[in-house]
Amino acid sequence: MRTFGILYAELLQTYDKSAGNTAFLGSLLLFVNSIAGPISGLLSMHFSFKWCTIIGGLVSCLGMVTSCMTNNIGMLYLTYSCLLGVGFGLSYPPTLSIINFYFDKRRAFANGILTASFGLSSLIYPTLYRKLIDHYGIHGAMLILGGLLLNICVGGSFFRQPRSFMRPSVPINSPESKKLLSHTNEGSKNKSKLTFAIDKILDMFRTYSVALRNTSFLLYCFAMSFALVGYSSIFMILPPHIESQQFTKDDAVVVLTVIGATEFVIRFFSGIIIDKQWLSVQTMFILTMFTGGICAIAVTFFRSMPINIIYAVTVGIFPGILHSLRPLLVVSSLGLKILPIAYPLSTLFSNTACLIGQPGLGWLEDYTGNWNVSFYTIGGLFFASSLCVLIERMLVKETQNEEIVIKTDDDVVEVTKTNQNNMENKDRDDVKTSLVIKCP
Fold first, then answer.
1. Is-contact 291 189, C-beta < 8 A?
2. Helical (H) or strand (E) element with 256
3. Is the distance from CB of 12 to CB of 19 less than 8 angstroms?
4. What is the pLDDT averaged over residues 332-341?
5. Which long-range contacts (CB under 8 A, 24 or more apart) does 322-325 make?
6. CA pair distance 270, 109, nearest whole angstrom
């Protein structure tokens, strides 16, 4: 998704469609990704992080491989945007959520290392995309990339289910196990698999209802939506913007590579800064997004390759740490326990905004004949995201606890208390959980 700008510039030439309609491929992919995300969270919590990721890798491969077989951009909406979106939606949330359950004191640093891999992909994939397209054409490149996506399955195979979502073990001959077994046998007779699935879905929506009543979480969702539309759009419009300045396609690849290299380095340091509590997650978000907005507007006043390189560095430093901060913002507002469901819900907000935002920037170029207004819009989106978090810091003063009941299986109910508004970013799990075994 982060190297869509390379494909975008190539698709504009291959299919000769408008900038807005072609950009809709990327925004639809993000939207489908967000729709699959909550389902992924539910499957991960109640079944397996590992298998959810593996299935997502297989669907992603299928989407990319079938995309290489069509010459119709309308069909790409189905194969590239929908199939690839479902695959990424199933594999991405478990990958980003699972690490938070294995780190407590250094959670921000662990997220920094994980999201630094995104920067590494931006460092490698633009050049790889360019070489593959030059040697094999866009369709041959998609076929090879489909094979590479199978590595998602390899990575997912190493996942181990967090203990928080595993059935508590009791001695086989203990009174508790006999009661549990008796209740399980009785419940299995009275409850069908369909009823079981419905209960799980209802639990998910109960969790959503609690999250959506959380003021901090809602403001963070708006902030992340504005920021993600701006940030992801940079990768889409920067390559054609550079080519419109009479620079080469290789120059566009260099700029994207610089962004990736900068992100790879800066995300390590962002985690250290947060873990040391030199800055809170919220303060870092406000400062980086606001600065990213200034840089997005300033770059339009220059037409030189060195300035484009400098701008690439600022993208990697400021809005580039967005993905490191997103799960931490969710944890700070709702706690760790429901992160696998709450994070995809926040992604649904932000990617739905991308469904309109990214084509809108393309249509602005169609209307104005250049990308300057699109960059002004990106700057405004970054300012709006900073403002949302600033409002949350100013308006939310009191801490409120709300109880969420999550059923992990037929026999165990997890009672979770979420912190309505965490004013400080602490290196701790903000969720207190008690397990209640229901007996007949």
1. no
2. helix 249-275
3. yes
4. 80
5. 322/224, 322/227, 322/228, 322/231, 322/288, 322/289, 323/96, 323/115, 323/118, 324/108, 324/111, 324/112, 324/115, 324/267, 324/270, 324/271, 325/270, 325/281, 325/284, 325/285
6. 7
Q: What is the CA radius of gyration of the chain?
A: 23
pTM for this predicted structure = 0.69
How far, CA to CA in Å, does 207 sit from each of 47, 118, 198, 404, 411?
Answer: 17, 29, 14, 7, 19
Give 182-248 as a DSSP string. HHHHHHHHH--HHHHHHHHHHHHHHHHHHHHT-HHHHHHHHHHHHHHHHHHHHHHHHHHHHHHTT--
Q: Are the C-beta atoms of residues 293 and 380 closer than 8 Å to each other?
A: yes
Is residue 290 within 8 Å of 390, Cβ to Cβ? no
pLDDT in tens, 219-238: 999 999 999 889 988 988 89
β partners of residue 414 = 406, 435
Whether the CB-CB separation of 316 and 259 falls below 8 Å is answered with yes
Altogether, the residues listed in the chain come to a count of: 440
